[in-house]
Amino acid sequence: MAPFEPAALPELLPVFYRRLFPHGAYGRWLGYGGVEKNYFQLREFSFTLRDDVYVRFQSFGSPQELEKELQRTNPYKIDIGAVYSHRPNQHNTVHLGAFQPVEKELVFDIDMTDYDDVRTCCSSADICSKCWTLMTIAVRVIDRALVEDLGMKHRLWVYSGRRGVHCWVCDDAVRKWSPALRAAAVEYLSLVKGGAETVKKVNLSEPVHPFIRRSVSVVEKYFEAYALQGQDILGSPERWDKVLALVPEEHRELLQSEFPKKRDSVQRWELLKGRMERTRRLASSGKGTACYADWEVMLQYCFPRLDINVSKGIGHLLKSPFSVHPKTGRISVPLDVQRLDDFDPFAVPTISSLCQELDAAGDDAEQEDGEETEPKRRMRDYRRTQLAPYVKAFEQFVEEMERGRRMERLRRSDLQGEF
What global pTM score does this model have? Predict the structure, then answer.
């Protein structure tokens, strides 16, 4: 893959926005089938331009107008905001207080830096294949709950381009949710609580909520390979002391004395887990109190950590899918939830590698065909590159949403026909 040089962005971005960005599907996504008149025109976009020039409250009369502006300004980053009561680019002409955000997708932002207290391989903005498993677990846990517990259908999961993932829940009813409803959903999906000074961040008690039980069963599938082997969380006295600090005192002393006799993290975990399971068996027959310390450890080390402020604020901006990350050069691409375990953030194409692929496929002069329209030529362009499967996944998401809208219209017309 071609190495990415941030200094090359001014040359690469015009090619990206002209020949690779999926303008058609992007406009269909945010237009929501003309669900309401002027819906697209009332949406806020913000651009980060060269030299960190930040331009908020951009809005456009149509997806075609947005496409022209992207090709004129070639932003380093695109953020998407809310649908407002008035056109965002005219917000200065509206009476104070009248200009308000009214709708937006429910969004989630999961960032690897929030796990620095529990990962041993990397810290800060760095990631590796070992700790990326945390993002896989996060998507699995949250996506399952969104569908099965909260009844949501249209979820677009996106790699941020560097060290995290974003989710856009696009259901019509959910886009209308108030900040209070959004905060309630995030609260439901949050288990890890407390700042850096809080040692024990997960506290479970009987009866354990079904959401927690289902989340534990997701985490369990990854826990041995990720935490016990990859992170080796019980590999040394210093590391196992950190884990035992989360275990009630009545069990801690015995485990402390037995751990050194065990060969590795896997054996030490089996000992801890076996002891906790025994308390639960005894409690079920009326003897003693059930202890869930093994579940609490798994959840503290692996459960998704959500930024509540990003999700509850309707006016909050979030980086757009298909934005270029200005530091890594990687494209913010949609994730295929069905093939999540195969996703490799380091294999995501960079803007440099994509432009190199276009060059290898032939220059502009060779590709230009007098008969061919610009959208058709662009479709051919991205298909020549590693961006193709990600654009296809995005188009399938948009088509699924459009199919859902058609079915809903049919259902409503059938209901009206019955009266």
Answer: 0.93
